[in-house]
Design brief:
alpha/beta; 10 helices; 278 residues; two-stranded parallel ribbon; 11 strands
Length: 278
């Protein structure tokens, strides 16, 4: 396992970035450059990562909606995902990641059509269009699961893997996003084992976070900092440790540097108790 976390930007060179990541104790990293960075600059950062034995965990294609009901938005979403996948291939990232998209106006919003069979078919077509245009050889296109959009379960992700049928399509594993019922939350250790058993062999990057089930009606499942919720982190880390040893696990979605530091300390502490190197 290779832990990674966002870091405050204190560097002004590729080598400075790699040194900052290493001095923070991380062996995996978020891609640090904006989408419009020049190719030679991207290449320099990729070389710095390789020299420092850092895994570039993922390149995001966030905000793109490849299944939008609006034709122009959908075309722009496909193009953005293709461009980001090409960047991931260029720099040797483990994967390019986006959600599958949404039939809503917003790219990541709930919509009653998101779980329909014809939307499943649209996702299959969109992923094939993205992957086939780039034909990556060393990276993968992946979908981050969502609680209200496909893939919304391990079984749905496996169905997409089979239907898309492209070697360059793989899994981005964020189990908390798949915990969308109280039953899954209360038995999250069992659900985590199910997720990793079914999807672990295909996983290229993993997100680590936590969750609470809050009391106001109706069901409200909220993401929180690792250590502040009910996720069985011991099971999560034990299962992640069974994957490819270069698999990144990334902390995300926190608001301050102090929160990230606390999250990282908690994850490291539990890993140390289990005797698992990060």
């Amino acid at each position: 396992m290779r832990l990674g976390s966002p870091l405050p930007q204190t560097w002004d060179s590729p080598e400075g970035w790699a040194d900052t990541v290493r001095r923070a104790g991380f062996r995996a990293a978020y891609w640090p450059l904006p989408d419009d960075a020049a190719g030679d600059v991207a290449d320099a950062y990729a070389r710095a990562a390789q020299a420092a034995d850092l895994v570039i965990a993922e390149v995001g294609a966030w905000r793109a909606n490849p299944i939008s009901p609006d034709d122009a938005t959908r075309a722009a979403g496909i193009a953005r995902c293709q461009a980001q996948l090409a960047l991931a291939e260029r720099i040797g990232a483990r994967c390019c990641v986006n959600t599958a998209g949404s039939r809503a106006d917003a790219w990541d919003a709930p919509h009653p059509d998101n779980l329909r069979a014809d939307t499943f078919a649209l996702i299959v077509d969109s992923v094939r269009e993205i992957v086939d245009a780039v034909a990556p050889r060393r990276t993968f296109y992946t979908l981050e699961p969502m609680p209200w959009a496909l893939p919304d379960s391990p079984a749905a992700y496996l169905d997409l893997l089979r239907a898309i049928d492209r070697p360059a399509f793989a899994v981005h594993l964020d189990p908390v996003n798949l915990i969308n019922t109280p039953a899954k939350f209360y038995d999250n250790a069992g659900f985590l084992r199910e997720c990793f058993a079914q999807l672990g062999p295909h996983a290229k990057s993993v997100h680590v976070k936590d969750m609470v089930l809050e009391p106001p009606l109706t069901v409200r499942l909220s993401e929180v900092r690792p250590g502040l919720g009910g996720l069985d982190l011991r099971t999560f880390l034990t299962e992640t440790a069974r994957l490819d040893p270069d698999t990144p696990i990334l902390v995300e979605h926190l608001q301050t540097d102090a929160e990230y530091a606390a999250a990282v300390a908690h994850v490291r502490g539990v890993a140390a108790e289990l005797g698992l190197p990060l």
